[in-house]
Write a structure and sequence with these properties.
It contains 8 helices and 16 strands. It is of the alpha+beta class. The protein has a 5-stranded mixed sheet with strand order 7-6-8-9-10, with helices on both faces. Strands 11-12-16-13 form a 4-stranded mixed sheet. A hairpin with a 6-residue loop joins β14 and β15.
Length: 270
């Protein structure tokens, strides 16, 4: 049976198997007597596969990028990329802001950007700011009476929580570039975190000494389930995957000293 997997490293240094693809052969078909009629009109057991790319990937997305304020969603995966919140003291101000914002909404949508304009007067702007921050909207735009006078908007990005005042003219292009910047920043941050927490170890003593710090540990393994079980029992770490690419240099198993074809990735996992 062959298995391919996506192994992700979470912010606390634990591994999460994010997606899997299994070639199951005929094992399950024989166990449950699942048959089909082949082209020769003869019955045989089916050949099965299993694809595990589902809600686990959503969990990985949440755990990889989010912070203490709530969700942080990459713009390319966010259901709504921009939330616009008016700040008005009365109905007349809200009506003026509505008219000011509508061309922005149209321009953003024309660029393929998903937008929510929240002019519901039942919630205060502060509540809305906290709600959209908690839900991980990549960009939040606030518009108040002063912005109408100055031709501006206040733009907040969820990944860094930075705010800046921008001219409303050409806002669609500015937001489009900002969304790409957020996308790139989240990817870079996650990649850097993983790379900084990948450690090559050659001795079992070093492995046991460093495993508490978390991360991916590249170590040689002799290929036996007994050795893997020993490591699991003594350290709570398991082999997460055998990398398809990277260093293929043979070596000696960190536990037994027996020959090893290549390094594998050990980690503690959920």
């Amino acid at each position: 049976m062959d298995t391919y997997c996506i192994e992700a490293l979470m912010q606390d240094g634990k591994a999460l198997q994010s997606g899997t693809s299994h070639f199951l052969g005929q094992n399950f078909a024989k166990a449950f007597d699942v048959l089909f009629t082949n082209k020769d009109n003869q019955q045989e057991h089916v050949w099965a596969t299993s694809w595990g790319v589902s809600t686990r990937l959503m969990g990985a997305l949440i755990m990889t990028h989010s912070d203490d304020q709530g969700l942080v969603l990459p713009p390319k995966l966010a259901p709504v990329q921009v939330a616009i919140v008016p700040i008005a003291k009365n109905g007349d101000q809200l009506a003026a802001i509505d008219a000011y914002v509508q061309p922005m909404v149209d321009a953003l949508r024309a660029k393929g950007i998903t937008v929510k304009y929240d002019n519901d007067d039942k919630r205060k702007p502060g509540w809305k700011f906290a709600e959209y921050e908690f839900k991980g909207y990549p960009v939040r735009i606030a518009v108040g009476p002063r912005d109408l006078e100055n031709g501006t908007v206040e733009v907040a990005r969820r990944d860094t929580l930075e705010k800046q005042v921008m001219q409303a003219a050409g806002i669609a292009d500015k937001v489009l570039h900002l969304l790409q910047a957020i996308q790139d920043n989240l990817y870079r941050k996650a990649l850097t975190m993983r790379e900084e927490n990948m450690h090559a170890v050659d001795s079992y003593a070093e492995f046991k000494d460093r495993i508490d710090q978390g991360g991916f540990f590249l170590a040689h393994w002799d290929g036996t389930p007994e050795t893997e079980e020993q490591v699991k029992n003594e350290t709570k770490a398991t082999i997460r995957c055998i990398p398809l690419t990277g260093d293929k240099t043979p070596g000696k198993c960190m536990v037994t000293g027996r020959p090893s074809a290549q390094r594998v990735i050990f980690a503690r996992a959920y």
